[in-house]
Description:
Layout: E1 6-15, E2 18-28, E3 33-38, H1 44-51, E4 59-64, E5 67-68, H2 74-81, E6 84-87, H3 99-110, H4 115-128, H5 144-155, E7 162-166, H6 174-191, E8 194-198, H7 202-208, E9 211-216, E10 221-225, H8 228-234, H9 238-244, H10 249-263
Parallel strand pairs: 3-8, 3-9, 6-7, 7-8
Antiparallel strand pairs: 1-2, 1-4, 4-5, 9-10
Bound molecules: adenosine-5'-triphosphate and magnesium ion (MG).
Magnesium ion binds next to helix 1.
Amino acid sequence: MRTAHIEVSGLTMAYGEYVVMRSLNFAVRRGEIFIIMGGSGSGKSTLLRHLIGLQAPAAGTVYFDGHDFWRASDAERGRLLRRMGILYQSGALWSSMTLAENIALPLSAHTQLTPKEIAELTSLKLALVGLAGFENYYPSEISGGMQKRAALARAMALDPEILLFDEPSAGLDPVSARRLDELILHLRDSLGSTVVIITHDLASILSIGTDSIFLDTETKSIIARGPPRELLKTSDQPRVQDFLTRGQVLASTSSSRSSARRRL
Ligand SMILES: Nc1ncnc2c1ncn2[C@@H]1O[C@H](COP(=O)(O)OP(=O)(O)OP(=O)(O)O)[C@@H](O)[C@H]1O
Ligand SMILES: [Mg+2]
């Protein structure tokens, strides 16, 4: 059996005395688009911070490819972190730098590539997210959806095996949000990355999510796991059903998906 790409084992997350979630156990398989769901304040961003080394567990640990992230040396942890690309919710790009300079930053910091090679790679990454020719634009000169795609290009600069996103579609109009979904699917398929997404966006959850967990504030635990579409059909947890059935979910999902496809 292959090792899970990410395994969270007995993870308790706390701020001082205040416990956010207790003894979380779950695994993310390679190539999944794994959705972390849960109400506001349930600990989704906190969980992400534990996955990327910004916050240490109160108990338990996280394994990447079987390597114990929190018991690793600093050097080993640094090597594991370089295999991840992170798209933060806000302030994703440096506003004083062009798109090319933004994407070149991780490449010049972490590789021995020459400036010419970096410029070529930067253009390639921008082309991958549909922004060929926008090298010399500043973030303020492009739309919100284009900024998200540029930030995605930067997250992918070092060819990460794992992409992590905190609310990628927040602040985007529905069409741009659907285009971002299509792009995430495309990147997963072409690069073979594993994708972990925190999102409230039901259209995204139901259309691209292949697996998920639901963090429940009341019990401080995971109360549902599995493909979101399956959970919608089978979960008998009222709070999970509430989360997955807000508004006219299914109707708007299918119509916005087809309109997004028409515009691609
Ligand atoms: N720096 C902090 N210090 C103390 N408590 C914090 C801190 N950051 C978050 N918390 C608390 O931890 C809990 C989880 O917060 P977190 O930001 O992870 O939630 P979330 O699921 O990401 O919420 P949202 O959907 O609103 O982004 C909340 O009760 C929050 O008040
Ligand atoms: Mg959050």
